[in-house]
Amino acid sequence: MPVSQHTGEVHESTHDGQPDRRQLRPAEVSLRFANVSMHFPDGTNALTDVSFDVGNGELVAVVGPSGCGKTTLLRVAAGLETPTGGSVAADTSDMGYIFQDATLMDWRTVQGNVELVAELQRIPKAERSVRAASAIASVGLAGFEDHFPDALSGGMKMRVSLARSLIMEPSLFLFDEPFGAVDQITRETLQQELLVLHSQRRFAGLLVTHSVTEAVYLSSRVIVLSPRPGRVLADIEVPLPYPRLPELRFEPGFVELTKRVTHELGSER
Q1: Per the domain annotation, does 159 fall within a domain?
Q2: 132 in helix, strand or coil?
Q3: Which of 20, 73, 124, 191 has its CA 20 to 30 Å from the CA of residue 249?
Q4: pTM for the structure as a whole
Q5: Containing structural domain, residue 140
Q6: What is the C-alpha to C-alpha distance for residues 249 and 235, in angstroms, rounded to an integer?
């Protein structure tokens, strides 16, 4: 379910353990990690000294070995965890969080699931109905409003999850391996649809993925994290123009970028 309500604030640990809150600067940055570390009470060191920005309208991918703190990084960005060191900031009060599992309510129709967040925000029924219809159409599910989740494919469920966030028109999305549970053909279709939505809405996005190909195909930059505790090994620009078509994956420039990211991933194993 989409979560998170950030207010353009910096969250930084202080000596008394309470987050320090300051306004994010400059305005062109949607999300900023500054020397973020995360140490859990059980002794797990998940992240150490992570710093990078996500600009307004920019898609940034994060890759790294399992257990390196990628999901922890998203949870810190969403305000679900407070970093034990450094700071994280977002310039918007609304944020969409897309999980690997669609997390739909089985007893609600597509329309009901998409309206849920707007309902919780007490948006009037007539307005949220209009917003939901627009969001459902934007993910290609017009005509499925009255269907229940058990009648949907895995790809369709992920589209409902995305529409549920789109209804609030967030300017920042956090994606936690959103296409990892579907087959390759559906995955590539969803990637293409995400690029279309991004070109239309120009939201910023931070995408966690285990797929190097997906990271390079979708993003303008790829952040490579080390094994736990995760730290930034590389911040690799993807200078490939948008819009991107599926055949891009076979072009020499794309192949070279995937090789570079893969090399960085293996540099500290």
Answers
A1: yes
A2: helix
A3: 73
A4: 0.84
A5: 104-169
A6: 20
